[in-house]
Amino acid sequence: MERKLFKNGIVLTMDEKLGDFKKADVLVEGSKIVEVGPSIAAEDCEVIDAEGMIVMPGLVDSHRHAWESVIRNVGADWSLQKYLGSIYYGNIGSKRRPEDDYIGNLLGSLEALESGVTTMLDWSMVISRDHTEEMIRGLKESGIRGVFAHGCPGDGEYWDRGSTLDCIDESKYIKQKYFSSNDQLLTMGLAIRGPEFCSWETAVKEIQTARELNSVCTMHLGFGTWGKVDRSIEKLNKAGLLGKDLNFAHATGVSPEEIKMLAEQGGSVSVTPEIEMMMGHGYPATGLCLENGLMPALGVDVVTSTGGDMFAQMKFTLQAERSRINEQLLAEDVMPGPPLNLHAKEVLKMATMADAEALLLDDKVGSLTPGKEADIIMLRTTDLNMFPVNDPIGAVVQCAHTGNVDSVFVGGKAVKRHGQMLHIDKKRIHTLAVEARNSIFEAYGNPDELWLV
After folding, report:
1. Is 452 a domain residue?
2. In terms of residue numbers, what domain contains 270?
């Protein structure tokens, strides 16, 4: 069995029992972490020099629409209403060919990997079985650890509060054909509309299907003007449907009582702070969750309007929540501090362990715990924006960016080394991505007079 020894790094384990190390080693056998600590004595290993590196678990993104990588940054000035009206209901999202979804998911996954994201949930918008299979092909080819969340088309007859349409039979087929085991790099979830975008009966049926398939069930819920009115989490709780396998994206408008229900009965919230603040979903629910006993997860969401890395999302999360509390204190004529209400370490946990828990993958990823998968990233501390290192957690959350990611390993396999992605044909990927973009906008038209270069 192939063995690797990561030697003499600053090791952030995200495992409270193990702790962190100023200088330590990580021993990997095959795809698994077997030991973490200083001066590990091991022979017959590939030694990976981690001197001058922060060694840590790969970042996890619990909510992303990967196919949109081929139309990235078209929505730099889009509100949520503009986004929904442009992507859904027979618009841009319906103009994709199967081959567009292949390259969209491949490009989106490689973007994530290059930035240190080793695990990602892909919240899909399925048009046909051919599209689904091409999405899966793109994810698999990238080498990312992922949850392919199988969804329905974006057409109006599906995204309507009275809709009884579903894709349950197709979800069962895809699960059986591609995801018969949960012990594989790519697993399956269900991306359902939830009770705010289809009929209650349909939402219940889809939740029950996800449980029958032993899959995480993710939905957009509790945001915008309707979030505080619908009280969907309360309804799910009354129906006895809450559980740790339910993931709610955004939840900016839900009540404190509903968050407490999730903390008690199970369920996760994926905060996507940058998109929520710019598009008008509502203020990120970070503090709402923490104040009511729930550690939120984090996600990128839509690369139509932001970049695909988690460093930015950690910064947005930290500063948005600190600003919320600081403004409350200033309004009361009180200066904030000395201690701030949210620490960098908590945010790093959101981007690792909390995200892993939301995807039901915390037994595999999220920390450098012996027995878990060797999803490991290395950040250079020799870069100008990183040295001298005084607080490595602060360096990761507040200072680091994608350019500092030196190496990325998924299941012990290197996908990036010395700042360069491995085993990819960048020219081919670029050509296919441009062809996909052109095909989509030739069918739809050029929104907002984009340059389309």
Report:
1. no
2. 59-356
